[in-house]
Specification:
By secondary structure, the protein is of the alpha/beta class. Helix content is about 30%, strand content about 20%. InterPro entries: Class_I_gatase-like, DJ-1/PfpI, INH-QAR.
């Protein structure tokens, strides 16, 4: 079985569960039977980064040194301070270096998994046009404005648009990760991982 590279993008003010949830799912999958189907690592433009609530994270790679991912996870987190200054995804969505890196990774990647407002970053990278998508419920209108031809689904927890998989806010990223594991390796593998994690995942399909 091919071991897939799973790159988890992190940045200042990233929502902790947005990236840690999928990190846990992909990392734990296949550990008990030794199949170890995913090589999971973090990547950022600089190191260390300060996630939400000042959690310090030392990414494994920078954008310049990161191996080509088969799966790229783009989490969310952030907003605007009271003075209007953007932070988290609202800042990174205007980061031309990051957008260029995502577009560089895109052609050779098998899937990109968006969590929460990570969809805004992908939309700014012009990857969300003419497809179904979702994001955190507080950013649905913003996503539609950035990607006017996208079909933004307001009540969806996970949306499968082929190469791109989108999830709603924060904890929905865990469901999206299980969904992608099931899509790639089979539902039984995903359910075994969910059982080990004691996570109530039903194995449902998404559109």
């Amino acid at each position: 079985m091919k071991q897939r590279n799973v790159a988890i993008l992190v940045f200042d003010d990233v929502e902790v569960l947005d990236f840690c949830g999928p990190f846990e799912v992909f990392s734990v999958t296949g550990k008990r039977d030794g199949s170890d189907p995913f090589n999971v690592y973090t990547v950022a433009e600089h190191t260390p980064i300060a996630a939400r609530n000042s959690l310090s994270v030392n990414p494994t790679y920078t954008l310049d040194t990161c191996p080509q991912p088969d799966i790229l996870v783009v989490p969310g987190g952030g907003g605007r301070h009271v003075d209007g200054t953007p932070f988290g995804t609202r800042k990174e969505m205007h980061n031309e270096t990051l957008l260029a890196w995502i577009n560089q990774c895109y052609p050779q990647s098998e899937h990109i998994l968006s969590v929460c407002t990570g969809a805004l970053v992908l939309a700014k990278a012009s990857l969300v046009e003419n497809m179904a998508a979702t994001t955190h419920h507080g950013a649905l209108d913003e996503l539609q404005q950035i990607a006017p031809t996208a079909e933004v689904k307001a009540n969806a927890r996970v949306v499968d648009s082929g190469k791109l998989i989108f999830s709603g806010g924060i904890s929905a990223g865990i469901d999206a990760a299980f969904y992608l594991v099931a899509k790639l390796l089979g539902k039984d593998v995903a359910l075994e991982t969910a059982t080990y994690m004691e996570y109530d995942w039903s194995g449902e399909s998404y559109g």
